[in-house]
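hi!! sorry for the late reply, been swamped w classes. u asked for the two structures so here they r. pasted raw, havent cleaned anything up. first the sequence of the first protein and right below it the tokens
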Amino acid sequence: MTFFELLWQGEGFSDAGDLAEALAGFQEVKPKELSWQEVCADPSYTPTIRRYRSFEAFLDNEDELETILPTAEMLEQACPAGTGAEAEEPSP
């Protein structure tokens, strides 16, 4: 089964079992005051997904099958406005 490792600012912070879950996982770390366009334009954030053959391959330090650099559009579709962490905060 394919395994996805999520990286933010060059550091692994989560994992996922499929691409949709991986894209949605970035909602956890996205600064609330920034749009996905702003995040993707800033090279210090660089949301990155590494796809591995399996979890075992990841643990065995095998090379990833591919590295995915999500676009703002991909992230917006996976994390539409009003969902995720930002939806949990009450309005003032």
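now the second protein. again sequence first, tokens right under
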Amino acid sequence: MKNFEGISFLWAVAILALIGLLYSVRAYIGFRDIERDAQEDYGYKQERGMLDGRLSREGYIRIFKRLHSPRRPAYIATAIFAILIFTWPIMGALSFLLEQLYQLSGQNRVFEPGFLVWQFCIFFGIILSWAAISYVVARRYHIRAPGTLKYETEQQVEEERTGKREELVIENDWGIPPLLAITGFAAIIIFVIFWKLFVSI
């Protein structure tokens, strides 16, 4: 039973994949049932005169799906599987770059593969890449989030009348999050310090 002692990287990947699968199943069930729920909700409110008279049946169902779709588990599963897919090529790219650094430094032992600086760069490079992937997915999740019921109703009425919705205006779009920018700057400073302290040894 030696293979089960501790948690290796592959075991961590397997556990993460299982979590992603669970979120995927949850999202699938939610998307599968939402059409039925929308139809039932429309029928209930129509019988009781609770609907906006400007909305068509199809328009109300679109609003219901937009407001109640299982976006959160779907985006979480997307982030998890994106991390699983891109971790391997990112590790390969980091290893290649560090190997080039090792060669350019005249095979200085400070940058030798497997030693402290190499492990440090691989570890924090992977963490930074995971944070970047999570940020991209989370940013898309919030950008595409639905508005209030009133807002979505007005937008749907406008779309049915003119054929288009109000365009989103994204303010303060940095392109990259401040945290990643600061982390990248700190990584450069640490690299320069290592270079100055150890390359000449």
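hope this helps!! also noticed smth abt the second:
Residues 2-165+175-198 form one domain.
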